[in-house]
Q: What sequence folds into this?
């Protein structure tokens, strides 16, 4: 591989470029921190208890608007026989979103997705203790309505009878204390296309099937709805819209430069284009389409896009380290085949995550109430795939560390023999070392910042400052910052690792290369010893 | 203000004597006023056709205005008939007419919890339904019990309002969208979401429950002719005590919130996590307040009172609480969640109709126990009667979650002890 721009760029130009990119990075962080709201927000919706007068499982029950049903207090533990029917006729109604400040709110398509989680308030009752784990059967029905529709025009969206397990513990067994029950994930919608949603839930009791018999004294059910915030989506999509043309532009520029060379593109150049392509896929602002079309597959698509990007990035690092191994047989490398062992770790990891995702979010496209985690087989399956992915990640990092360690060993070995080499070889090796060190530094910095940011975010989240208004929205800043960072990283890679136009001394040429180029190269901010080695090189050349 | 003293029909004492006894013994704050907590006993009465202001201090006359707005008319109909509210509270009701039902529910919850918590004690949180002051003298005394009542009802309102917001039955709950961007609700909600309902519940409780005390606190002179500066000062101290205890009740609610989180990042990873808080069962609130009641701080010195004023005004909380009781109570720093009182509890042993103290005679007690319900303590050393009763109760019950239960009936013969 010939020299790249990063080696031939003067120190001043390089620092200007790096400074510009750093500014872009700070801007990304600040956009998230100052403009964007939190990525998502959660609302507690208390279920109203309606009573189905007949057995109208087709009917929609809603609590606001014309023809709404009355909320009835659940009268617990009446002795009348007819009350058995009652349990099967109680419908828990959640009409979302709930109004605020006397305004009937409606969902905006900018809010992208909706997650529903149930929380059961079960009071302790000494005569009716709950087991630590109870299986409950939920008959759930989700409907939607749009603005302008009549109040009762609810259209079915999805319905399902789902089993979920409920883990409830109680610290102090006192009457009327609530159990501390695990939350029950109910549904996940990949698109928020409609204005209003309505969830009707029944907890049918059947003594023959022992359905819902173990449920304690249920006081109320809360539905927690989590949706992305419209403001965050707007900021996010704008960021994507800005990055998208930049990355495409730099890819075209890069590819043109590669094609201007006489030789066919090298493996690393293919990898860089692949990486750029994966990022472009990630950057494509498909969210605009969700404003007009119902695209419930957006969550899955987002996961897949992210997965492809990670695969590309991880493969790139491997190949990059491999290509800088500086072993003699250069021809042997330059083929992806050589890396099949290493890349298979990436492949297996990504594939298992993909399968897991398809099992979870893929099936959710058909049934939003589905979750792989609720059955034991599903949980084991999901865990298998996740553990497999984890193992591949471990294997990958072992490979990568080994290769990087190898490269560093070679570097130190090469450096000791560097002064004794011919000029072309020396320049070649110095270039290789510099390229490698530069990327190592940049990558480590990016990875460290991502990890540190993530940990900081987790810590800040755990403390949950709710009564002091924090000026910087940290979570959003983390997301935009990290997203921007990887964009800038790849932009810089495409830009700096493009082949240089400056002529290199070719092996067949004589050693009488122009002095100006040598001087330009020597200005590189690599090591101070470089100049002395150049001097020794000059002496050596004179001797030759 | 409304009635100087809600005269219960059952009291046989003549009015002058009652007033005299109040003036002699009670702090000269005020007589047993009508109180908003009365809503918790009687609930919200059906709205009147034409709002006729009833005795209990309306903010404005109902008939002076033209009723063009049906909503306003409805609000007036609902709020006009409410017993026990002061002007400022009626105004709050007029602004949020749908909130009055949760308020009544909150008061009911508070009173019920109080009665549950004190069911075994000498004072059993008894209420008088014919009296608009609900607790009568106890509410005016300024003792630990007063502190508990104020805290538990204030907490009840915050709890009930928060719940009503979540249920969607209270449609005017605040949204408070974001700090920097002042957007109106629909846009603000779509942009950055709304705040937690609990904040609104707390705020509302502050606005409504604290209103009488704030009125007392700010304009002591205006309503009652308290010429004596010392009396006025005592009056203000009482207002501060009530405010502090109201806030303590709310503080307890927010300290008991549970936080839950859900991960929903890429492939469901915890890259993105959203958390929310859920309300505790109200009995937990009651239990914690009962614990605080036992450690209630008596403020006796003027210095302590000053500190209380400072604490009740400053928004930050003290945090740590020590169990240290004893003589130098005022020396420990008073935290926001502590209950405070300025007077000692009266003697609850003997019936004192003038103060509405029922006494403990006739109360069921526990012969073997050692706690507050033990016959020794509850009967104040007067001894107890023992009866043999046949007790019929449900047993071996089989429950189904909502509303159904099959039980057998079991009969047991047991001794029942009642105080003399």
A:
């Amino acid at each position: 591989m010939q020299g790249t721009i990063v080696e031939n760029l003067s120190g001043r130009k390089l620092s200007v470029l790096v400074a510009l990119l750093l500014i872009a990075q700070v801007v990304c962080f600040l956009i998230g921190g100052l403009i964007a709201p939190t990525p998502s927000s959660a609302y507690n919706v208390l279920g109203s208890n309606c009573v189905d007068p007949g057995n109208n499982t087709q009917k929609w029950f809603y609590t606001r608007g014309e023809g709404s049903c009355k909320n009835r207090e659940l009268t617990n533990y009446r002795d009348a026989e007819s009350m058995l029917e009652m349990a099967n006729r109680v419908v828990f109604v959640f009409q979302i979103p709930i109004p605020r400040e006397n305004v009937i709110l409606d969902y905006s398509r900018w809010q992208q997705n909706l997650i529903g989680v149930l929380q059961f308030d079960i009071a302790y009752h000494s005569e009716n203790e709950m087991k630590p784990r109870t299986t409950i059967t939920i008959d759930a029905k989700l409907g939607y309505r749009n603005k302008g529709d009549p109040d009762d025009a609810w259209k079915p969206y999805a319905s399902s009878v789902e089993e979920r397990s409920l883990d409830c513990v109680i610290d102090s067994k006192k009457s009327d204390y609530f159990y501390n029950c695990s939350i029950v994930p109910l549904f996940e919608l990949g698109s928020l296309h409609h204005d209003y949603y309505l969830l009707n839930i029944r907890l049918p009791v059947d003594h023959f099937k022992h359905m819902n018999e173990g449920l304690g004294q249920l006081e109320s059910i809360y539905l927690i709805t989590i949706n992305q915030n419209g403001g965050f989506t707007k900021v996010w999509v704008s960021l994507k819209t800005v990055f998208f043309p930049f990355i495409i532009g730099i890819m075209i520029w890069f590819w043109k430069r590669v094609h201007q060379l006489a030789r066919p593109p090298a493996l690393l150049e293919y990898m860089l284009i692949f990486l750029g392509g994966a990022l472009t896929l990630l950057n494509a602002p498909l969210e605009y389409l969700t404003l007009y079309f119902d695209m419930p597959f957006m969550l899955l698509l987002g996961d897949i896009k992210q997965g492809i990007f990670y695969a590309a990035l991880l493969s790139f690092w491997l190949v990059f380290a491999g290509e800088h191994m500086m072993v003699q047989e250069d021809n042997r490398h330059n083929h992806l085949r050589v890396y099949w062992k290493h890349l298979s770790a990436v492949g297996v990891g990504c594939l298992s995550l993909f399968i897991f995702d398809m099992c979870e979010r893929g099936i959710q496209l058909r049934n939003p109430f589905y979750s792989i985690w609720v059955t034991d087989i599903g949980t084991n399956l999901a865990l298998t795939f996740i553990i497999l992915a984890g193992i591949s990640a471990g294997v990958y990092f072992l490979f990568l560390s080994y290769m990087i360690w190898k490269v560093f060993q070679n570097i130190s070995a090469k450096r000791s023999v560097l002064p004794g080499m011919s000029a072309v070889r020396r320049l070649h090796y110095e270039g290789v070392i510099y390229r490698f060190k530069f990327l190592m530094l940049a990558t480590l910095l990016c990875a460290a910042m991502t990890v540190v940011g993530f940990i900081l975010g987790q810590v800040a989240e755990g403390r949950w400052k709710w009564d002091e208004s924090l000026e910087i929205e940290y979570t959003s800043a983390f997301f935009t910052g990290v997203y921007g960072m990887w964009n800038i990283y790849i932009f810089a890679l495409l830009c700096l690792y493009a082949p240089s136009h400056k002529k290199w001394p070719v092996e067949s040429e004589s050693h009488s290369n122009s002095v100006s180029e040598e001087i330009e190269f020597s200005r590189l901010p690599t090591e101070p010893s470089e100049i002395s080695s150049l001097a020794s090189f000059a002496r050596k050349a004179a001797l030759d | 203000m409304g009635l100087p003293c809600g005269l219960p029909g059952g009291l046989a004492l003549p009015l002058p004597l009652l007033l005299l006894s109040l003036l002699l013994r009670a702090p000269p704050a005020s007589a047993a006023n009508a109180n908003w907590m009365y809503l918790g006993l009687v609930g919200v009465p059906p709205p009147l056709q034409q709002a006729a202001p009833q005795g209990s201090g309306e903010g404005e006359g109902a008939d002076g205005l033209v009723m063009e707005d049906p909503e306003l008319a409805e609000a007036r109909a609902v709020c006009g008939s409410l017993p026990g509210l002061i002007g400022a509270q009626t105004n709050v009701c007029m602004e949020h007419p749908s909130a009055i039902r949760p308020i009544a529910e909150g008061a009911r919850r508070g009173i019920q919890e109080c009665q549950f918590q004190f069911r075994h004690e000498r004072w059993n949180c008894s209420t008088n339904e014919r009296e608009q002051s609900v607790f009568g003298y106890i509410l005016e005394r300024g003792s630990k019990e007063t502190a508990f009542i104020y805290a538990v009802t204030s907490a009840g309102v915050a709890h009930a309002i928060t719940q009503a917001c979540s249920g969607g039955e209270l449609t005017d709950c605040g949204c408070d969208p974001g700090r920097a961007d002042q957007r109106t609700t629909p846009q603000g909600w779509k942009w950055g979401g709304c705040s937690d309902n609990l904040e609104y519940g707390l705020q509302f409780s502050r606005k409504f429950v604290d209103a009488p005390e704030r009125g007392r606190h700010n304009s002591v002179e205006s309503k009652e002719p308290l010429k004596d500066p010392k009396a006025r000062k005592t009056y203000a101290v009482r207002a501060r005590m009530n405010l502090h205890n109201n806030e303590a009740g709310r503080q307890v609610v927010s300290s008991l919130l549970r936080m839950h989180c859900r991960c929903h990042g890429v492939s469901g990873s915890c890259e993105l996590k959203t958390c929310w808080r859920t309300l505790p069962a109200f009995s937990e609130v009651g239990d914690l307040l009962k614990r605080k009641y036992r450690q209630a701080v008596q403020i006796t010195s003027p210095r302590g009172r000053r500190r209380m004023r400072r604490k009740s005004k400053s928004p930050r909380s003290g945090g740590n609480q020590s169990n240290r009781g004893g003589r130098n109570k005022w020396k420990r720093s008073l935290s926001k969640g502590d209950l405070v009182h300025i007077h000692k509890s009266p003697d609850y042993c003997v019936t004192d109709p003038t103060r509405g103290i029922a006494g403990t005679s006739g109360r069921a007690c526990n012969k073997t126990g050692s706690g507050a319900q033990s016959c020794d303590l509850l009967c104040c050393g007067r001894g107890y009667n023992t009866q043999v009763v046949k007790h019929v109760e449900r047993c071996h019950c089989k429950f189904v979650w909502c509303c159904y239960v099959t039980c057998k009936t079991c009969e047991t013969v047991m001794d029942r002890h009642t105080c003399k």
Remarks:
- Chain B touches chain A through 60 residues (CB under 8 Å).
